[in-house]
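ok so I'm stuck.
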Amino acid sequence: MQSGLADFIEQRVETIVEQAITFARSIDVDTPLDDVTLRDHLPEIIQAIVSDLRTAQTRAEEIAKSEGHVPMSAGHSKSAAATHALHRAHSGFSISSLVAEYRAMRASVLRAWADDASQPPGAAREITRFNEAIDEAIAESVSHYADEVERWRNIFLGVLGHDLRSPLTAIMLTSEHIARMAIDAPLAKAAQRLIRSGESMNQLLDKLLVYNRSQFGIGFEITKEDIDLAQACRDEIEQLRAAMPATRIRFDGPDAMRGMFDAGSIREALANLVVNARKYGAEDAEIRVVLREDGANAALAVANTGDPIPRETLDLMFEPLRRGGVSGGELEQASLGLGLFIVSQIVKAHAGVIRAESVDGTTTFNLQLPRGMPQ
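replied:
not stuck anymore, here's the structure
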């Protein structure tokens, strides 16, 4: 396909690149960048735009492109726009600065094109195609930039969780040593407080590890065994009652229910749901836990009364680092907002389904867990 604008751009590639470098140099970053770094993949991006302008497209393709429905490049071979985004992310550019580069490049081309007196017929339509191509490059760059930022955030969290283990272990061992040596009651109580605080920190690090693994696609590790799920639930509820004596927890379930489950992770999920119900439910309200058979599944439900939760909030409750937008006092300030996320990961690892509903002041979390009994 012939394109006067494509030819026009191709003849001025170096001028466009130099103007883009001049603009990029004006962006404030922590470390000054040389021209080679600033040049980066700009010529390849421009060439991709030129190729796009010379490629025929149908009306349907034009509409899809304008609505942002063109698929990003897939596989191991990244486009110039994608690679450019990764380099800019590593160089200290903000995402707004990355977009500003494309805006400056667009303005540079359009100014030169408008000043050219020898524009061919159909010039306006070519400008539309050019804008579409620039927008495609922006969308792809922003997507890869955001993915890279997320990847490094997950790496940071993983390293942080790993590096905090050693000093935390030293604190807990020293606290236990002090507790054993303590003679007077006040010192012994202080040592026990340190131990409990260390255990809480250890649990937070465990939650960070679960989140970190899920973000890298590793998932929650479980080991399924033939267990009595009803007894595992009863054991966990007894521990919860001892830890929260002021909370009323009622359990309804069969005498026994065998299945292939990871008992430890199911108990952790149940504990997270009950603690969540205590945080956000009505004060002094009873928390109801129901276990029943549902065909080939085990159905586990945790319900509490309290303020109704909007549907849009329920849909986000299993997202990591969210806490439903409800204040929970001191307990909430110590939370990472990973409790329900971890529950969802445990259910997923069991090939199950979890859903939340809030009707007439009662919020219920329903878990469907395949029993997976051997034939």
